[in-house]
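Run log, item B.
One chain of 343 residues. Sequence copied directly from the ordering sheet:
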Amino acid sequence: MASDPTEPISVSIIIPARNEEKNLALLLDSLSRQSLKPLEIIVANDNSSDGTARVAEERGARLINLKDLPEGWTGKALACFEGAKAACGELLVFLDADTCLEADGLKLLLKLYEKHRGFISVQPFHRMERPDERLSAFFNLISFLSMNVSSVIRRLNRPNGAFGPCFICGRRDYFAVGGHEAIKGEIIEDMALARLAQKKGYGVNCFAGRGVISFRMYPGGLSPLIEGWTKNFASGAVKVGPLMFLVSFGWVTGAMSGPVDIIKGLATQNNYLIKLGIVFYVIFTAQIYFFLQRLGNFGPFSAILYPINLAFFIFIFLRSLVYTHVLGYVYWKGRKFRLKKRT
């Protein structure tokens, strides 16, 4: 049962954190500047070996130190669940430690919840500083398509999960569906929790976070970027329904056709193919640039050089197939996760 919309809602911020000393400081500083103050900020420290706990305490957050990871649990799921059990607010706002809120961010998130209720997820605006970070372009595009944020056929296609960095729901609703305990072994816990909520009859809505919340996704270099996206693919985070699969497949195939036609035309000295390829290249460059501006500070070169990003996307997809069907595991943040067989 949702709370009375005429009454002010008390908000508990829950931050699962494992070795997030630098990121956590930025997030907690952004929370201290909010125009709407939360009831409490809870940091669930998942056996960090850096100064995560110290940063939380210095900035006045309520610290929960997790014990050794129980069998069958993933670290983030346990951190979220323990944080939720300790929370006193009516509304639970789960934030990844690498996110940052704009000054009115929490107020805007609350307005989204008051309008839609159920389970809300918001994908942060992607801040990037190095060229290799922009290799995430197509992953962002496909993820948004799978979540149906920008779909023109939204009524025909429900969101296929949720964005984990920012997840919002009522405390009663959270425990009514079983919370993270019900999906404790899932590597991509946000997707699993959203799908569970849908099965239980709750609404799930996904939104873009530009002007509300942002994050820097893989600041540690190319290696964690490859590891992170391989994990997401292999564990099913980048997953679309049948309708969106057809749309995604057709769109990616079309994006490939421009560069391929140009190369073929140059190789065979076929001017018609070259011109046709240029037309498709320009069309898809414009489309990609338009959508990427909503998702992050990718800049025009991410669109102009999109064949590089597309090639990287295909490489990660093939790599994930090896981990999924041959190795049966992935690595993330120093932990080895066995992949469940999909039914």
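Observations after the first pass:
- The chain has two domains: 11-124+163-209, 242-338.
- DSSP finds twelve helices and twelve strands in the chain.
Flagged for discussion on Thursday.
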